Amino acid sequence: MTNNSDIEKVKPQANSKPSPKKRLLSLLKSVLLYGTVFLVIYTAINWWRQPVMPANPQLQLTDYQGQTVDLASLSADKPTLVYFWGTWCPICRTTSPAVNTLAKQGNYPVVTVAIKSGNNQELHDYLSEHKYDFTTVNDEESNIFADWQGQVTPSFVILKDGEMSQGLTGIQPLWSLKLRLWLSSL
Question: Residue 54 forms beta bridges with which residues?
Fold first, then answer.
């Protein structure tokens, strides 16, 4: 027969807290698990939403100022960033300054396609107001974007030798764009 003092010795303490080390390990495991799940879902959605290069893409475009832009020639020497955006797009307001910085640095060609952003004068006024110097094609009716099966703005395409090497969507910081262009040049 056991007495009460033996039972108390065997009974685990209900109020015992895990050590700080165990709590930290548990937190790190949770962050790693949820981070991995987020990354997988984000990558899958980004892949699904990215533009798709048309079978016979129109790589000779005209910018809003009437200058010819030959994407095949630009991408022959270095990877070229094609940035689909709109003056009406709130996320593009975050991304466009990084694209403008990339264009000003001049390490890689940058061509932007403004989707449904008004006529050429309205687009010019917007670009001037925001001090954007990047080459811009005005896609007033969204025909170019539709040809690339674009679904969301902002969207990005990296061309190398006239072929799409990468496609992505959403907010992209400057370092990410530079890294992707550099990887496409390898």
Answer: none
pTM of the model: 0.76
SS3 34: helix
**DSSP 8-state secondary structure symbol assigned to residue 131:** T
Distance of CA 22 to the CA centre of its chain: 37
Q: Which two tokens stand for residue 25?
A: 């390990």
Q: Give the pLDDT confidence of 17-55 residue by residue, as tens digits.
A: 888 888 888 888 888 888 888 777 766 666 666 777 777
| Sheet with 155-160, edge to edge strand ranges | 135-139, 110-115, 80-85, 155-160, 163-169
SS3 155: strand
> Helix-strand-coil percent breakdown of the chain, rounded to 5?
45, 20, 35
